[in-house]
Amino acid sequence: MPELPEVEVTRRGIEPGVVGRRIDAVVVRHAGLRRAVPATLGDVLTGTFIETVRRRGKFILVDCRAQDSTSVVGTLLIHLGMTGTLRVMPADTPVRAHDHVDFVLGDRVLRFNDPRRFGLVLWHAEDDGPVLDSATFSKLGVEPFSDAFDVERGGHLLHRLSRGRSVAIKPFLLAGEAVVGVGNIYASETLFRARIHPRVAAGRVSLARYVLLADAIRVVLAAAIAKGGSTLRDFVGADGASGYFQQDYFVYDREGLPCRVCSTTIRSIRQGQRSTFYCPRCQH
Ligand SMILES: [Zn+2]
Question: Looking at the 3D structure of the chain, how many domains does it have?
């Protein structure tokens, strides 16, 4: 599943190829994604210009403006789901299986492909209010690279929002209420770096550990973005490069192997139907 780094890599990959371009047409070959692609999408988007390509959590936000205006008319919301990819390619590129939606931009096309169809292509009209205040985003935690999550503030934020919480730290992070972007892989990796046991109640983790964790979250996510994403077989970079680089994980997917720090055997447990990997000696 694409996590925040893959989405950010996708955003950076498509941005230079689409910003400033006119949307000439929208081709919906299959509207049946996790939610139906709006039937009116072609009507509202055709003739608009792409102003900016942003990201919030795991959504890519494409702001569109009218031809003779600098004001945004609305925002296209795209989520990659489990297997979605979004790529810019020449307009005459032959259609493959699972190429569900095309945004035609002159000589090129922004193409959404999604074999498992858990992705989303939605529209938020500016008349409905600021997109980031909408229900989709209003409950999300802060962005890990925002000023609100620099190391000191991030540590304090996690500490404050976790007081009184009996939920284990791993699912607390996965829920994304405090900070977004710490998906299953990065939860295991960042908890290892902060030496926090994944089963400890979030409300019992000390401020000092949360400061370490906030630092680990920024370091690990930045490294993943720098390497072009993570190790997901279904992900293809926005430039069409095949696959991407695998990080040298400390614990993720290393059950039974020796800890890279202390040589203790890495263990795997299930938490909320997700696998968690940890070192029983380094994390306590
Ligand atoms: Zn260890």
Answer: 2
What does the radius of gyration of the chain's CA atoms come to, in whole angstroms?
Answer: 20
What's the pLDDT tens digit per position in 137-184?
999 999 999 999 987 899 999 999 999 999 999 999 999 999 999 999
pTM of the predicted structure, to 2 decimals: 0.90
Within a domain: residue 283? Answer: no
**Residue 284, domain member (yes or no):** no
Is residue 158 situated within a structural domain? yes
Rounded distance from Cα 251 to ligand 1 centre (Å): 9
Q: Which of 11, 55, 58, 254 is catalytic?
A: 58
What pLDDT score does 238 carry? 54
Q: Is 3 known to be catalytic?
A: yes
Q: Would 68 be classed as within a structural domain?
A: yes
Q: For the range 271-275, what are the long-range contacts, defined as Cβ-Cβ under 8 Å and sequence gap of 24 or more?
A: 271/168, 271/170, 271/171, 271/198, 271/199, 272/171, 272/174, 274/174, 274/184, 275/184
Q: Give me ligand 1 centre to Cα 249, in Å.
A: 13
Among this protein's residues, is 5 annotated catalytic? no
Q: Separation of 73 CA from ligand 1 center, angstroms?
A: 52
Give the distance (Å) from ligand 1 centre to CA of residue 266: 7
Q: Check whether residue 23 and residue 54 sit in a common domain.
A: yes
CA of 165 to the centre of ligand 1 (A): 27
Which residue, of 113, 138, 163, is where some domain finishes? Answer: 138
Domain of residue 216, CATH code: 1.10.8.50
SS3 65: strand
Chain segment 241-271, per-residue pLDDT in tens: 434 445 579 999 999 999 999 999 999 999 9
134 shares its domain with 153: no
Are 22 and 64 within one domain?
A: yes
Is residue 58 part of the annotated active site? The answer reads yes
Residue 30: what are its φ and ψ, rounded to 5°? -150, 110
Distance, CA of 54 to CA of 59 (rounded, Å): 8
pLDDT tens digits along 70-117: 889 999 999 999 999 999 999 999 999 999 999 999 999 999 999 999
